[in-house]
């Protein structure tokens, strides 16, 4: 009887351990399954190319967008292959940052620079291979991969560029023009002054192109001025030209800021920039407007001017509003408050005073690309005259045109006023070349237009 009882207890005890080990094994199995699911996921990375590539040879930018929402991107490898020869153009790897969450970046959005000249591949058919891997342990621990193969043609011959006309003399704040020919249809072309690029435009005559360029008011003598043209393969053709640099003397001015001016003007800016309300003294608000808002305005104007009509819309000289000049281009101003200098800025236009609420007319034919209030400029109109040339009219009391309107030379667009950072009724007029403020005096001068622009077209 006692023996029977001991056997029954032993059986129960053994069953308990069996159930315990079974539960433990099941838990471990589930844990391993979860780990395997996380580490051995099977979702491949995605790859999107925003640019169609047909030719390689020089340096090109490839907008690349790769994503992997599970384990993250571990590597991007770009290879150029031709027959049994291949060369790695780019190899970017990322260190593992974790195990049970994305181990690498889940997205990669950038312009990859490819320099095919270094690959040593001869001209002819080739293949661009783009490989993206993730951090999954799938594929014998190598990760999931997406492989894209793009047939390309190797072309290492640069475009042939010939100078027709290059600006002979240029000064700080001055404008220039270059005419040139490109033997084949270029993918991108223009004038390069040191590292600043000014795009060119077709003239409609043979293979001739025009590019307008400018130097900022404070520019020194450029080290390199040249025409550049790039083909679809990224090859660069160049034609240097020499422009005589003519320095201009500095012009300095001082403006007294009164308490009355601040009391009158700061509420106007507070209305348009609510972050100014209830903070700081009048002088602090003024400095915020004259610095931060001025910089923001400059960025906005450059952005507006970046979109320009490829055709020349203007003709002959630009009209100057009748009236007396109150301030000139590139006047370096010192602002005084209670006899103390509190700020310095540079005036990038010409102020012209006439009758109060004088009619403002378009200086030349063009398309209205901005007609609204903008900070220190107040009510402002910008007219795009095509190929990077623009005119600006500010401090208006009223705007009598709309964005998108094609206006003719001398057509009314508004009335003068004192909006923005203006102490009295006047027109602030500016000329811009690809967003760079230049002296309007050249564009008001028919002789300058004839010698520097029209004669070049007539001789081409």
Q: What would you say this structure looks like, in words?
A:
The protein has helices spanning 2-39, 259-272, 282-306, 440-444, 446-459; strands at 46-49, 55-56, 59-67, 73-82, 85-93, 107-115, 124-134, 145-154, 161-165, 169-170, 175-182, 188-193, 196-199, 201-202, 208-214, 225-230, 236-240, 244-245, 251-256, 324-327, 331-337, 340-347, 350-353, 359-361, 366-373, 379-386, 389-396, 398-399, 406-407, 412-415, 427-433, 436-438. The chain is of the alpha+beta class. It folds into three domains: 46-154, Immunoglobulin-like; 161-245, Immunoglobulin-like; 251-438, Glucose Permease (Domain IIA), CATH 2.70.70. Strands 20, 23, 25, 26, 27, 29, 31 and 32 form an eight-stranded antiparallel sheet that branches. It has a five-stranded mixed sheet with strand order 2-8-7-4-5, with no helix packed on it. Strands 9-11-15-14 form a four-stranded antiparallel sheet. Helix 2 (259-272) crosses helix 3 (282-306). The protein is flat.
The pLDDT mean sits at 90
Outline type: flat
Looking at the structure, the CATH topology of the largest domain is: Glucose Permease (Domain IIA)
In DSSP terms (H or I, runs of 4 or more residues), the helix count works out at 5
The CATH first-level class of the largest domain comes to Mainly Beta
Range of helix content: 10-25%
Low-confidence stretches: none
Rg (C-alpha, Å):
33 Å
* Spatial gap, N to C terminus: 124 Å
Going by CATH, the homologous superfamily of the largest domain would be Glucose Permease (Domain IIA)
How does the major sheet shape up? Answer: 8 strands, antiparallel
The count of DSSP E runs of length 2 or more, i.e. the number of strands, is: 32
Task: Please give the domain count.
Answer: 3
Strand content: 35-45%
Helix and strand composition category: alpha+beta
| CATH architecture annotation name of the largest domain | Distorted Sandwich
């Amino acid at each position: 009887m006692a023996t029977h009882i001991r056997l029954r207890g032993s059986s129960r005890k053994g069953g308990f351990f069996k159930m315990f080990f079974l539960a433990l094994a099941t838990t471990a199995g589930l844990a391993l399954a979860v780990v395997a699911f996380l580490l051995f996921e099977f979702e491949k990375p995605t790859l999107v190319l925003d640019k169609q590539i047909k030719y390689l040879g020089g340096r090109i930018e490839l907008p690349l967008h790769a994503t992997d929402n599970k384990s993250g991107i571990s590597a991007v490898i770009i290879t150029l292959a031709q027959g049994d020869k291949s060369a790695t153009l780019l190899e970017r790897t990322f260190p593992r940052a974790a195990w049970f969450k994305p181990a690498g970046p889940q997205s990669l959005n950038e312009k990859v620079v490819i320099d095919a000249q270094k690959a040593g591949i001869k001209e002819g058919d080739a293949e661009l291979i783009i490989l993206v891997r993730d951090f999954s342990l799938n594929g014998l621990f190598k990760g999931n991969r997406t492989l894209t193969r793009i047939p390309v043609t190797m072309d290492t011959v640069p475009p042939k560029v010939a100078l027709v006309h290059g600006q002979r003399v240029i000064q700080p704040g001055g404008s220039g023009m270059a005419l040139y020919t490109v033997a084949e249809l270029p993918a991108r072309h223009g004038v390069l002054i040191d590292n600043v690029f000014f795009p060119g435009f077709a003239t409609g005559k043979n293979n001739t192109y025009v590019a307008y360029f400018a130097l900022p008011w404070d520019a020194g003598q450029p080290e390199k001025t040249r025409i550049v043209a790039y083909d679809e393969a990224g090859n660069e053709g160049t034609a240097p030209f020499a422009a005589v640099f003519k320095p201009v003397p500095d012009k300095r001015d001082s403006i007294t800021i009164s308490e009355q001016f601040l009391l009158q003007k700061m509420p106007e800016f507070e209305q348009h920039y609510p972050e100014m309300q209830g903070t700081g003294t009048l002088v602090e608000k003024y400095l915020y407007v004259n610095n931060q808002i001025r910089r923001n305005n400059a960025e906005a104007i450059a952005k507006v001017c970046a979109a320009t009509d490829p055709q020349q819309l203007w003709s002959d000289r630009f009209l100057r509003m009748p009236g007396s000049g109150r301030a000139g281009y590139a006047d370096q101003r010192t602002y005084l408050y209670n006899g103390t200098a509190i700020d310095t800025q540079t005036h990038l236009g010409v102020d012209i005073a006439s009758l109060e609420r004088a009619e403002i007319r378009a200086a030349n034919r063009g398309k209205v690309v901005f007609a609204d209030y903008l900070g220190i400029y107040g009510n402002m109109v910008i007219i795009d005259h095509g190929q990077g040339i623009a005119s600006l009219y500010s401090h208006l009391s009223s705007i009598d045109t709309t964005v998108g309107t094609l206006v003719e030379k001398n057509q009314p667009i508004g009335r003068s006023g004192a909006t923005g950072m203006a102490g009295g009724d006047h027109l602030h007029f500016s000329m811009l070349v690809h967003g760079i403020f230049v002296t309007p005096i050249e564009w008001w001068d028919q002789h300058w237009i004839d010698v520097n622009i029209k004669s070049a077209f007539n001789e081409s």
